[in-house]
């Protein structure tokens, strides 16, 4: 049986390959979970440290930054850069989901382009934000 | 079948006693998160984060503390709805009940702590 390569293969239990739409779908869940736990705990920690007074906030800042340079320590930097990307990726694919909810964007090419776009935008914005922070040394 | 019309079931009158509320609230809070949490993240990157006095001054304005409280409510409600779906998809026995209870403790406790802390700073100002 000759297969017309112009026709899509029907996905079956073991016959499928990764596509950007699958990656973005599971990333929406993974980044949402990361934001919910990582972002939530960090936000509450920051606010409680701030509300407990100047000394308590100084301890929080001391943990986050280096004494010599005043810059972010490695681990907090990795966590914050990671959470920036998970936030932006969840935001982008969330907006994509709101558009898909209207019934738009299910054509194969549009769907694939939209999925790739969320990844491109979230990575570019993360690089832009953290590039400007490290370049200007804002904090 | 004794379960009413389909629109009645959607509105929460079916045997499950709830309809599209979970789905719809997740979309509503997605919209409010888009505005409020984006505002928060942009603010965080613009603020002098290591300057205690500047942050207290920032939070003492209702234009900062009120949107921050709304962002906390919106984000914690959204994460409670979202993680509930994740738990329901992957946990199938009694661990599901435990996970949902822990999720509720986390969402309500986290939001309460955050809101109290914001209000304390907003009303009290700087503490030595």
Question: What does this protein look like?
Answer:
The complex is a heterodimer of chains A (139) and B (128). By secondary structure, chain A is mostly helical. Chain A has a single domain, classed as 3 helical TM bundles of succinate and fumarate reductases. Helix content of chain A is 72%, strand content 0%. Chain A has 4 helices and no strands. Chain A has helices at 20-51, 54-64, 74-101, 108-136. In chain A, α1 (20-51) packs antiparallel against α2 and α1 (20-51) packs parallel to α4. Chain A is elongated. Chain A starts with 19 loop residues before the first helix and ends with a helix. With 128 residues, chain B is mostly helical. Chain B has a single domain (25-124), classed as Up-down Bundle (3 helical TM bundles of succinate and fumarate reductases), CATH 1.20.1300. Helix content of chain B is 80%, strand content 0%. Chain B has 5 helices and no strands. In chain B, α2 (21-46) crosses α4 (62-90) and α4 runs antiparallel to α5. Chain B is elongated and about 60 Å long. The termini of chain B are far apart. Chain A binds chain B through residues 29, 32-33, 35-36, 39-41, 43-44, 47-48, 50-55, 57-58, 61, 64-65, 70, 84, 87, 91, 94-95, 97-98, 101, 129, 133, 138-139, and chain B through 27, 30-31, 33-34, 37-38, 41, 45, 48-50, 52, 55-56, 59, 72, 75-76, 79, 82-83, 86, 106, 110, 113-114, 116-118, 120-121, 126-128.
């Amino acid at each position: 049986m000759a297969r017309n390569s112009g026709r899509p293969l029907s996905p079956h239990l073991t016959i499928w390959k990764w596509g950007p739409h699958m990656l973005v779908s599971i990333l929406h869940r993974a980044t949402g979970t990361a934001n919910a736990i990582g972002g939530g705990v960090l936000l509450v920690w920051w606010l409680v440290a701030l509300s407990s007074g100047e000394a308590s906030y100084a301890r929080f800042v001391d943990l986050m930054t280096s004494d010599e340079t005043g810059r972010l320590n490695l681990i907090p930097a990795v966590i914050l850069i990671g959470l920036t990307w998970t936030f932006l990726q969840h935001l982008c694919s969330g907006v994509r989901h709101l558009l898909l909810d209207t019934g738009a964007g299910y054509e194969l090419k549009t769907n694939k382009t939209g999925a790739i776009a969320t990844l491109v935008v979230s990575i570019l914005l993360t690089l832009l934000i953290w590039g400007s922070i490290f370049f200007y040394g804002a904090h | 079948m004794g379960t009413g019309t389909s629109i009645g079931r959607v509105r929460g009158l079916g045997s499950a006693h709830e309809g599209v509320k979970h789905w719809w609230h997740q979309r509503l809070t997605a919209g409010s998160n888009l505005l409020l949490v984006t505002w928060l993240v942009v603010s965080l990157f613009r603020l002098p984060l290591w300057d205690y006095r500047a942050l207290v001054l920032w939070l003492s304005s209702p234009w900062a503390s009120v949107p921050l409280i709304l962002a906390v409510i919106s984000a914690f409600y959204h994460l409670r709805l979202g993680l509930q779906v994740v738990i329901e998809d992957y946990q199938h026995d009694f661990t599901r009940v435990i996970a949902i209870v822990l999720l509720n403790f986390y969402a309500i406790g986290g939001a309460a702590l955050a809101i109290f802390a914001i209000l304390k700073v907003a009303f009290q100002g700087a503490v030595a």
